[in-house]
Write a structure and sequence with these properties.
There is one protein chain. This protein has about 425 residues and is α+β, with helices and mostly antiparallel strands. The protein has two domains: about 10-250 and about 405-415, no CATH class; about 255-380, no CATH class. Helix content is about 30%, strand content about 25%. It has an eight-stranded mixed beta sheet with strand order 5-10-7-11-4-3-9-8, with helices on both faces. A hairpin with a 5-residue loop joins strand 8 and strand 9.
Length: about 425
């Protein structure tokens, strides 16, 4: 049983969404954020990445968080941000080149993260967790949504469809990647009540994106509750956008190897050939996000290796006795190749292993290897959403960079104030 709530969103004034909306704070460096802000002085990155405005300061200094709050207050006082007079839920719809994604922007309950109804599949890093905890606390607001998933539900889909028919969106913003983001307010109390009732019948929600944002929201409640202080109900709520499992897309998360020491490219390929069926792949469609297996079957572990200007398909038969996290392709790659052949034992911290998000064409991998920046690239197959659910249900934690979910949502369109 899970709960979702309407909220009084703080959002851009009419006509300002296009200028204010920005990519999430964690997909750009401070330098990249600074460049975006220079081109667009109203970008929400001024608030979500205020460290970009203070290059001489420690990015975790109190001055950075204070500046975030000061700019947020400035936007509200100047009328760039307005707060809705009544609580609402919102349809968040994204169009990209391939498809449309539709979800519900609302608030989830941090207590259900603690009790296990909101389920995770990744570990959080303390430094990132602490950063967002301080940011949320200073802002007194959730400024970026947690992306949550649930099983497909026909009535929810019908409600969202009806809520967007024959009307223009309340806000529209275009992202740099070409995607179009639309917001439609749902103010009908009967519809909001029905959505609440439906979600009460759903046993769990699953975090797709925003593990740090979700845990940080929990941390803020704990911090403000110290000494038995009773915090307002709204403080327990966390800004979320909830999608059905068939309203998202999962890409594989590619690996890049800076070097192959102690091996040469030929000996690395030979060692892989000792444990896998390796065949030249031939010409690859450079525009695609993944390579379609040519030999590997549905029950096999398949990945594609780019080495010395050529693609190879590597197939390792699946062990039917292994059904837990060890059965993931990324786990097999780590345990059977990266550790024994290259000595990469820490996939989170070893600088020899880098990652490239899945919503990038394989062309980008090839360029990075052909330039000499990396010695090899490994393109992974996407994980099924249901596999993520199964692992989270069992309390399992997936290896780092196992999934890349689409759509990626913009920050600054909807903000939830805690109290």
């Amino acid at each position: 049983m899970v709960h979702v709530y309407p909220f009084q969103a703080v959002r851009p004034a009419p006509g300002k969404a296009e200028e204010i909306a920005a990519v999430p704070y964690d997909v750009v460096s401070a330098e990249e954020a600074r460049e975006i802000i220079e081109k667009n002085p109203l970008s929400f990155l001024r608030i979500s990445r205020a460290d970009a405005l203070l290059p001489d300061k420690d990015p975790y200094s109190a001055d950075v968080y204070k500046l975030s709050r000061d700019i947020f207050d400035e936007y509200q006082n100047s009328g760039l941000f307005l707060q809705d007079e009544t609580a609402a839920m919102y349809v968040y719809r994204v169009h990209d080149a391939d498809r449309t994604y539709t979800g519900i922007a609302c608030c989830a309950d941090t207590r259900e993260y603690e009790s296990g109804e909101i389920r995770r599949h990744e570990l959080t890093r303390y430094d990132k967790e602490e950063d967002r905890t301080r940011h949320i606390d200073a802002m007194n607001a959730n400024t970026g949504p947690v992306v949550l998933l649930h099983g497909s539900h026909a009535e929810i889909k019908a409600i969202l469809k009806k809520s967007t028919e024959n009307r223009e969106p309340d806000m529209v913003a275009h992202a740099a990647n070409g995607s179009v983001h639309e917001i439609f307010a749902i103010r009908d109390e009967a519809v909001i009540t029905r959505l609440h009732e439906i979600f009460v019948s759903i046993p769990a929600l699953y975090i797709a994106d925003g593990h740090h944002r979700c845990k940080s929201a929990v941390n803020v409640v704990e911090k403000r509750s110290k000494g038995g202080v009773k915090v307002p109900e709204e403080t327990h709520h966390v800004l979320s956008v909830v999608f059905a499992e068939d309203e998202v897309k999962v890409h594989g998360y590619s690996r890049l190897l800076t070097d192959l020491a102690p091996l040469t490219p030929d000996s690395f390929l030979k060692k892989i050939s000792d444990i896998a069926h390796v065949t030249p792949y031939g010409d690859a469609d450079r525009s695609q996000f993944t390579l379609t297996p040519k030999i590997g079957g549905e029950g096999d572990h398949v990945f594609h290796l780019y080495l010395k200007g050529k693609w190879y398909e590597c197939v390792i038969p699946r062990n039917p006795k292994i059904t837990d996290i060890r059965a993931l392709d990324v786990s097999v790659l780590q345990e059977q190749i990266l550790i024994p052949f290259l000595g990469i034992t820490d996939p989170r911290g070893d600088p020899r292993l880098q990652y490239l998000g899945g919503a990038r064409p394989v062309r980008d991998l090839m360029i990075k290897v052909d330039s000499g920046e990396y010695a090899a690239a490994i393109a992974m197959q996407p994980v099924d959403v249901r596999t993520v659910f199964t692992i989270a249900d069992a309390g399992g934690i997936m290896p780092p960079k196992s999934t890349w979910f689409e759509p990626k949502l913009l920050s600054g369109l909807l903000i939830h104030v805690l109290e």
